[in-house]
Amino acid sequence: MVIPVSAVVLLLILAVIFIRNCSLKISHALVCMLLGFFLAGTSMAPTIHSGLMTTADLVSSLRP
């Protein structure tokens, strides 16, 4: 559960930065948030989740 919470925090930080720089309007952020909620309720949610988990495992296995 750590990875999804980290991703949410990262996306929230990016959204705040974009809103403060006037690159992202509040209405655009709300639309993106609603899209995320609707995607979570579809049949694509397990596929998206497994794709994110696979990507996170791949990134965590990389050694510099």
TrEMBL record:
Keyword check for Membrane: yes
Name of the protein: Uncharacterized protein
Transmembrane segments: 6-22, 29-48
Source superkingdom: Bacteria
Keywords: Membrane, Transmembrane, Transmembrane helix
Organism of provenance: Streptomyces puniciscabiei
